[in-house]
Amino acid sequence: MVNLQSAVKIMSIGGTGAEMGIKELLSQRVSAAMQAAGVPSDCSPMVALSGKPQFGDYQANGAMGAAKQLKTNPRELAQKILDNLDLEGVADKLEIAGPGFINITLDNKFLAKSLGQSGDQQSISKQTVVVDYSSPNLAKEMHVGHLRSTIIGDALARILEYQGHSVVRQNHMGDWGTQFGMLIAELEEQMGEGEQAELALNDLEVFYQQSKKHFDADPAFADKARGYVVKLQSGDNHCRSLWQKFIDVSVAHNLEIYQQLNVGLGREHIQPESSYNDDLENVVNELSTQGLAVDSEGAKVVFLAELADKNGDPSPMIIQKSGGGFLYATTDLACLRYRVGTLKADRILYFIDARQSLHMKQVFITGRKAKFVPDHVSLEHHAFGTMMGADGRPFKTRSGGTVKLADLLVEAQERAQRLVQEKNPELSSQEVAEIARKLGIGAIKYADLSKTRTNDYIFDWDAMLSFEGNTSPYLQYAYTRIHSIFRKAGIDALSFSAPVMIEQPQEKTLALKLSQFNEVLSQVSSDCYPHSLCSYLYDLASAFMSFYEQCPVLKDGVATDVQHSRLQLCAYSATTLAQGLDLLGIEVMEKM
Ligand code: ARG
């Protein structure tokens, strides 16, 4: 595999020109001109990409808002701003349009020079960002419901890390709930009958069903199970060792899934619910002392007027049951303190299903009121919709059961394998397997990441594995195409370096796209909607394809400097595509 990180670095070293992104540079310059024209400094220059080439490459739309505030004519103000605007060497043409838009057409030489700066993230202020993602319950095997959190969270962790933030991945695994009493009681019985723990737990789904059946049918067993939860949570050795056996198997299974999914979660990122056990009582005591938690029918409850219902009744959050047991919310409060106090988070991102929105709101509000979380720390729940089947209902097996993630990943690779074999029968079986893995896993991930996070989406094998449209196979294919150009030319794409000259409109469009990579990343790292990165990569690949159709690279008769410039555009396109896909956790290949 190509080492993309180093590739990007090579290209940045070669680059000169703007230290910051183009949009940021334009914003600063327009801002300065606005102030020189008498506009108050809090008025935004409102620099944005132009929708159409005839309006230039960028537009500054701040004159209208400023004119309103100053009660003056917007077009005249725009002219004053223009008179003060210094874009020497940056823009080629400045024009006022409509009621006071300033259209900016970049200088092609400036644009060309600004390429190859994709490794430069100097201007971002670095934060410590805790990313809570995947976080499955360990009682059962991971199923498709865990996919979204796992891959969306991972994409964000990668993007933030790439920007230079200090990212702390936290896998808040559920290993402490009431179900574990039942599971360890069952494990004890099966082992008592001579079964090996590993064998009994060979299929966690089956084991869970067995325990549940046992629990429902046998009151004595159910009693024992309930007793075991209490014993486990209070540190009983026997229960603890049965529990550990169970957890080991379940964790190993999850780690294997992460590896198959190319998700950057390892053992070191697991910070399970049980790890907060010792702090739960403190949390309850502190909230009680502060008067935030009150006794209610024997339980300890935090009532939140902030989340009152239509009738004005405050929203209750139970933090200790009448029997003394602690809850999911209690753990999340202890966890908040850990993330703020020990991990020193500036920003905490939670990638959890939209159904837990109320829970997250309750935890955040309580955490702030109790001063567990200082004001400057940002708490963000980034919710997502559900993955649906073709029938528009949550994705299930034919018989209506939950789809295990492991099975889904196997199917993806099998389907991809058939496609690859069809397309390219000359590949060795080893090559086919490798390509199919990247193609199949990439397809599933991209299909998810490219949809607006908050919406439900329909899981569709044919669409996600298509080589046309906004899919991972299309992008991976575009990447292999660029590689084949370099192969034909007998040049190493990564060490290639030549000055870029922008002459044809397709070269301009491609260069503009390439220059926007970091801007897109800034947006994604702030709003946590990775589909913008997908759309960007799709547009980039499409811009590359039109460039490649219109601008011959290796054909006879192309002047050497033009050929080199185009090869350099090819190289930038390849690195940006690969880097972008890598940030989504998707691998590329040199041929397919
Ligand atoms: N284990 C939970 C579940 O499967 C998700 C945990 C998310 N993280 C958190 N800090 N609550 O629903």
Report on the architecture of this protein:
- It is a single chain.
- This protein is an alpha/beta fold.
- It has a domain at 19-116: Arginyl tRNA synthetase N-terminal domain (Gyrase A, domain 2, 2-Layer Sandwich), CATH 3.30.1360.70.
- 52% of the residues lie in helices and 10% in strands.
- The protein has 22 helices and 13 strands.
- Helix 7 packs across helix 11 (237-260) and helix 15 (405-423) crosses helix 16 (429-449).
- The longest helix has 24 residues, at 237-260.
- It is flat.
- It starts with a helix and ends in a 9-residue tail after the last helix.
- The model is unreliable at 1-19 (pLDDT under 50).
- The structure holds arginine.
- Residues 132, 135-137, 172, 174, 332, 335, 350, 352 line the site of arginine (ARG).
From the structure above, extract its key features.
Gyrase A, domain 2, binds arginine, single chain, 592 residues, 13 strands, 4-stranded antiparallel beta sheet, 4-stranded parallel beta sheet, alpha/beta, 22 helices, disordered N terminus
Mean of residue pLDDT? 93
Please describe the biggest sheet, giving its number of strands, its sense, and whether it closes into a barrel.
Answer: 4 strands, antiparallel
- By CATH, the architecture of the domain at 19-116 is named 2-Layer Sandwich
Small-molecule components bound: arginine
Question: What helical percentage do the residues reach?
Answer: 40-55%
- Per CATH, the superfamily of the domain at 19-116 is Arginyl tRNA synthetase N-terminal domain
The CATH class name of the domain at 19-116 reads Alpha Beta
Shape: flat
